[in-house]
Fold this protein.
Amino acid sequence: MSAAGASRTVASWAGLLIGAALLALSNVVGGAWLFLHFYAESGELGDKDKYAGLQTAEYRYRDYGRPELILLVDYVDGTDRVAIGLPTLDKQHPRLWTYLNEVDFKGKPFQLSPIGTQLAPHCDQLDVILKSRNVSREIASFLEAKMRCS
């Protein structure tokens, strides 16, 4: 093989390797975009700000003087979300927090409380709130079941 033929072969291999590297890089960038677009904006990562909103409401009203009252917090973190704090029987965690108008990526109501927390039975208060607000049947059923209302 002549020197000119050898240099063309090396150049074509180099071009092939550069093309393969660019293709691999585009696959990595495309995969990252798909992950961020479809998974990070939904699923647990996408719900992170919603849980943060409940944590904010819980922190602000943790020491509210009347633990027997149901609390409503409109416009949580500047959004249209409405948080509800339901009285519990646990003095360390006086309220279970959830949203009246938001569900998680699985379609289930959010819940911010320790596992096994029992709610104080305030079904009359809850009934007034559910009738005065636009609450989905799924969230209403969840709240009634948690509070053990019939």
About this structure: The chain has a mean pLDDT of 81. Helices lie at 3-40, 43-46, 48-60, 123-132, 137-147. The first strand starts at residue 71 and ends at 73.
